[in-house]
Amino acid sequence: MTTQHRPDDALEDFTELLRDEHAPFNEDRFDPELRRKNRRRGLIVTTVVLAVTLASGGGYAGWALTAPLSDPVATSQAPNAPVPAAASIPLPPEGASAIAISGADEYLGSTASTMWATSGTDEPRPIASISKLITALVVLDAVPLADATDPGPTLWFDSADYALYDKYYLMGATIAAMPRGSSMSLRDALATMLIPSASNYAEAVAGWAFGSQSGFVGAARRWLDANGLTNTTIVEPTGINPRNTSTPTDLIALGRLAAANPTIAQIVSTRGLTLPGPGPMSNTNGLLGSHGITGLKTGTLDPGGSNLLYTATLDVGAAQPLEIVGVVLGGSSREAVNHSVTSLLDGIAGGFTQVPLADEGQQVGSYTTPWGSTAQMVLSEDASVFSWSDTPITVTMDTTTPTTWQDGEVVGSVTWTCGPNTVTVPVEIEGSITPPDDWWKLTHPDELG
């Protein structure tokens, strides 16, 4: 059976409850029936107080239900900037070397395209068959070809030219067959001089172009002066004489001149060819086509050591491939020089990397509210930056106050800077901030604006 109460009864119960609360201690209050009565009276009190409050016509309830809420509390922390590992750049450990790199000044420094790194001293050293590269440039300066495929004039080889084979054979130089009375285009003669490094062809071409070896030497000295190679000396066209010397700095400039000549650039990039007379020939530069190497010329002299003047193209992921000219002089062997060069080029290529910065969904902050609604600040996408070696990376984070507080709203960005490269990723809300219900507003007036 349910007991019905009138409003007057409720008020009387409320008054009685207050009187009981302040009454002296009495064990009867712990009677089970009395406890049930007290619980019923507590419910009545709550109902009456709430009814009185709501009936106050737009008073507290009206204020509480319409008062503005304080903004959620935001906390944020930019991601840590990674510290890339330094690149390993092993310069040749013996002799002397130099390397210039074009296409990456913003990473390697403004002087990289002129001279990026050196080892040893910049004093003149014997250049051996690198001399043949100078011989070819001097001849083409006097007898230019129209383009890389132009065969040019025809050379006829007489008995004196034929005798050059025996001369250089006895000197221990590299030679190629030159039948008496045979002929060859200038371009093919230059190829035979440069690809297998045939010394007899170098002298024959120099004599043909300038009438004598002394005529060639005079022309070579003038050409060297005109091109600013003042620390280079040429006394004959083959390099078998150790007085043919140059410095690493001059040879870097020579390499650029050779690479800019279409005929020579195509010849020195050829691994092998077969021609009537000399027959099949292989390039003495065994590194062609590996580690990005595209040319130029080897040279070995005993004493004097092993030399290599080389060009290379490395696609490392930068805006453009790196164009490299390098030289090693005075190596202990061809194998040692090749190892030094390939280790250096691999080190340069490996020094350019995509450095991971952050992952999609990575938390960078949060929002909390007094009423228990929360959301996260997260990165909206993965991020990485192109870097050279241990170039420092800086990170900044900017945020704004949300307008909707809903999942997916963009509320800022994180920016990383590494050398010339900048990467920016939006920051967005994950989750949504929902407003509190009316009961929370009515019972938390100190949290209202």
**Fourth-tier CATH superfamily name of the largest domain:** DD-peptidase/beta-lactamase superfamily
Question: How does the major sheet shape up?
Answer: 6 strands, antiparallel
What's the quaternary structure here?
A: single chain
Mass-distribution shape? rod-shaped
Task: Tell me the CATH topology of the largest domain.
Answer: Beta-lactamase
Strand segment count: 19
Highest CATH level, the class of the largest domain:
Alpha Beta
Q: What percentage of the residues does DSSP assign to strands (E)?
A: 15-25%
Low-confidence residue ranges:
1-15, 21-29
| Mean pLDDT figure | 89
Structural class: alpha+beta
| Through-space gap between termini | 47 Å
Computed CA radius of gyration, to the nearest angstrom: 44 Å
Count of folded domains: 3
Question: Which architecture name of the largest domain does CATH use?
Answer: 3-Layer(aba) Sandwich
Helix content: 25-40%
Major β-sheet strand ordering: 1-14-15-19-18-17
Number of helices: 13
Tags for this entry?
449 residues, alpha+beta, Peptidoglycan synthesis regulatory factor (PBP3), Domain 2, Beta-lactamase, 3 domains, 6-stranded antiparallel beta sheet, 5-stranded antiparallel beta sheet, 34% helix, disordered N terminus
